[in-house]
Design goal:
mainly alpha
């Protein structure tokens, strides 16, 4: 079994959630690109922080 890097795994999670992120971004009064980037960044930080905390 091939071991995936952290970046690949996070990218897969973001791809999986892309439609939901886009739907949520419509409720925030900012350009959609900025909102999506902000949500994705928060998710990445949560995933990385949670992993460090469990180690």
């Amino acid at each position: 079994m091939k071991k995936e890097s952290n970046g690949d795994t996070i990218s897969q999670v973001l791809d999986f959630l892309e439609k939901d992120i886009l739907s949520l971004s419509k409720f925030i009064k900012m350009p959609i690109e900025n909102v999506m980037q902000s949500i994705e960044l928060e998710l990445i930080e949560l995933l990385k922080y949670d992993k460090k905390e469990k180690s």
